[in-house]
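2024-03-11 09:14:02 DEBUG pipeline.ingest accepted 1 chain
2024-03-11 09:14:02 DEBUG pipeline.ingest length=143
2024-03-11 09:14:03 DEBUG pipeline.predict start
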Amino acid sequence: MSKTLLATPEDAEQAFYEAFNRGDLDALMSVWSEDDDPVCIHPGGSRFTGLAAIRESWKQLFETGMKFRVRTSNVVRAQSALLAVHSLLQHVHVEGDDTLAPPLITTNVYVRGASGWQLMMHHTSPSPDASGLLTQESPRVVH
């Protein structure tokens, strides 16, 4: 799997969501950290630990044949020299489904290593009450 040097956590996040929208498993997995024990939790799903388990979980999702369009908003960022945490809303649309789904609450954790910024943890949960989520100010940086 070829790794692209991702200079910022925002670059890693953009690469992740672009790969997700294309259904490109190899590109999506290239964003994940190989140096640590990454974790992925899908909405209402199980916790997957390690690259092999994470890859299989995304493979199964992409093999459903559904085409996803994901847009993010309301990003709150906290960052140090080697770690970045992004809390955001994911707006997911499935092609062919006109249902307006509430946003999903997501936390992405990025680590910086010799290969640049990589995804260490992706945790997405259904929102308990979507009505108040979109009125919060956005974006914002926490220091």
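2024-03-11 09:14:41 DEBUG pipeline.report Residues 6 and 116 are 5 Å apart (CA to CA).
2024-03-11 09:14:41 DEBUG pipeline.predict end
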